Each structure stands twice: as C-alpha cells, then as structure tokens.
Amino acid sequence: MKKQSSTNSTRSEVKVEMARMPLASRPGYLVRRLHQIHSAIFLEECQEFGITPVQYGLITTLLNNPGIDQVTLGGEVGIDRTNVADVLNRLSERGLVRRERSQTDRRSMVAFLTKEGEAVADKMYDSMRRAQDRFLAPLRPEFRAAFLAMVTELIEGNSKYSLPDTNSASGRRKSTASRDE
Amino acid sequence: MKKQSSTNSTRSEVKVEMARMPLASRPGYLVRRLHQIHSAIFLEECQEFGITPVQYGLITTLLNNPGIDQVTLGGEVGIDRTNVADVLNRLSERGLVRRERSQTDRRSMVAFLTKEGEAVADKMYDSMRRAQDRFLAPLRPEFRAAFLAMVTELIEGNSKYSLPDTNSASGRRKSTASRDE
DNA sequence: CCTAATTACTCAGTATACATCTCTTTATCG
DNA sequence: CGATAAAGAGATGTATACTGAGTAATTAGG
Predict the structure, then answer these.
(1) Taking the domain B22-157, which CATH number applies?
(2) pLDDT tens column, A28-52
(3) Is A50 left (phi over 0), alpha (psi -120 to 50) or beta?
(4) Which residue is closest to C19 in terms of CA–C1' distance?
C-alpha cells in the first residue's frame, strides 16, 4: 500500500486519488447529469405546455387520485411537503389545480385537477412519451428494461433516504423531559 | 355518451393510459428519485464539511486544474456558467476558493483553491467514497460497472442536451442586420 | 373535558439549475 | 484609429428541493 503519510496526506497524494476517480466516473456526477439531461429533453418536448417534469408528476397523480391530501401526494410523487405546496401554488395560479380544506380532517388541504388541468394531462401524454423515447434512445433496446430495473433497485434499496424527513416530526425536538424551565 | 368533441381521447381514456404508465415506471421519475437519493446520502456522509455534491465537483476540478476559467470549469463539471459564478461565490465567501482576472484574457475570471480549500478536498475524499459505496450497495457488485456504463452511454448519446446553451451565444439572436437604427 | 402530543400546513432561508438581459472587454473592419 | 461586432461575465427572475421554525387542527391521556 502507498499509505506513506498518515491521516492527513499530502496535496500531491490527493491529486493522485482524484485522478484515479475522475468526475466522469463518479456515480454522483453521472446521476446528476442524467437527471439534468432528462429534464432538458422533457422541457423541450413539452415546451408548448409550460409544464415541468415535477408538475407533470403531480398532475398525473391528481388525475388518478382526485382529492388526495398534500402529504400523501408528496409521498406518491417523491417530493417533500413544502415543495408540494410550492408547485401546487404555481399550478393553481394557472388554473390547472383547485385546493380546498378536507371535510374529514380540517388540517389537510386536498387537491383536484380543474377541467383545464385534465385537458393538459390529456394533451401532454404523447409529448411525455416522446421525451422518454428520446431519453432512452442511446441505449440498445434490449438493455433498457434492465437499466430501469437497476435504477428501481437502487431506489428501493436506498428507500430510507428517499425523502429525508417526510413527516417533519423528527426535526421537532420537544423531548418529554424539557418542559419545566 | 360523453362528448367526443376534443382532439382525440376522453378523460377516462387518459386515466387508462396513465394507469398503464404509472409514475414509478417512468424513466424521468426514476432518474429524479435516483438523483435525490444520491444527494441525500452525499449530504449525510459529508455533513461535517457543509459541502454539496456540486460544490465538491467544482473543488476537485479546481484541485486538478488550478487557474481554470469559469466557463471551462462549468463545461468540465456540467453546470452552466451563471451557476458556476453562484457556487464559486459561496465557496469564496467561505475562504475555500480565490478568484482573479485572467492575465491572458482580461474578460475571464480564473479560480484557485486556497490552502483551506485543498484541505477540505483532502479531508472529504473518504466521506465521498463512503457515499458512493452506500449509494451503489443495493446493486449486486457484478452489475455495478454495467449500470455505470449504461448511464455513461445515456449521457454521451444525449450529449447535445447536456448543457442547454453552454456558450450563451445561440440564444442571442442578433442577426447581423439590426444594428442600423 | 382539558392539556399534551401529533399532524398538516405555511413561511423564511439556502442551494442548485437555467433563461434572459445588460455591461465590459476583446477583436475586427473600414 | 475609431466604430462596432462578438464573446464573456454578471444580475435578475423562475423553478425545484430541502431545512427549520412556527401555526392551526386533531387526537390521546389523564
């Protein structure tokens, strides 16, 4: 082993390490670029609708689950609850989504697509499929399913990091023993 | 019957399509979640340094290319040049990066790591590797290289969407015929 | 039935990512 | 050599994404 200097190695040693693990081979870099590229293709195909990938995810989830509450919606789509509120806000300003208090639990806000929202979901479907096709095109067809299966495996295997703190309660450190002072 | 009026499909038909292509099987959703998960793991492993994945990418690129200009740096790391300026700003406020005008082209800003910046790069290396290992852990070891190869293929095959408008000139439609007035 | 804990949401702040516009610097042309 | 075209950097605005703090409504315990 070339562990000549102990914990704090020299600058040149770090450079050697970095050269051995160049940016273009690091999983994190690759995954970020992949996401970036998919977003660019999606945005290009769906340009005429002015809908982003995340907005489209929310819209289709609302299409299949009208009246869902914001927390459940965030869990389905994989975005955190403050972000759900942001995106729904933008969508409702454009008249694609309507929100109201839940009848059964008045803490909750439930969301619905408007007629316009349903029309957008309808009209965007083909564009979304074209974006997917273009994105996967560089991969040989027989590898595509395997690729998606591996991604799914990575997501499920790391599911505990999926959404950092979904219920927001763990950050709230009111432990039962500090009420007195 | 409902109105067949609009372009092609009815609402219920759309729902069938959506059910056939649920969120969890769409490439875009999967890639977004994967990126999200990697960021969460990286941030957790590298928490003590307060460095994000993108910041780390810039730091290691500066380590290997001291004095690189901001545009080239953005091309290497895969982020656009206004974002490079943002991130370098944060890093230089923390004393990790130093910037100055290029001697050869005084329009350009060139960047260097400070001693503190080099120390951070050094100390973070092991944490970064741990984040990578945890991220890839759910995949069987013999699949990991294949997975990274497929991601690389998707990135390279879609390289024209990698960075939407790197040089900023294509968006600038000042056709040579509008200077007179 | 009142209080404590939990839950759902909102708001403010940080960071990444990109488009567009403006300004400065450099290069070129008459 | 001075006008101007070309190129790059910065500022501004939008969108996603998450953290932390705070508010309101519901539920659980005594």
Answers:
(1) 1.10.10.10
(2) 999 999 999 999 999 999 989 999 9
(3) left
(4) B171
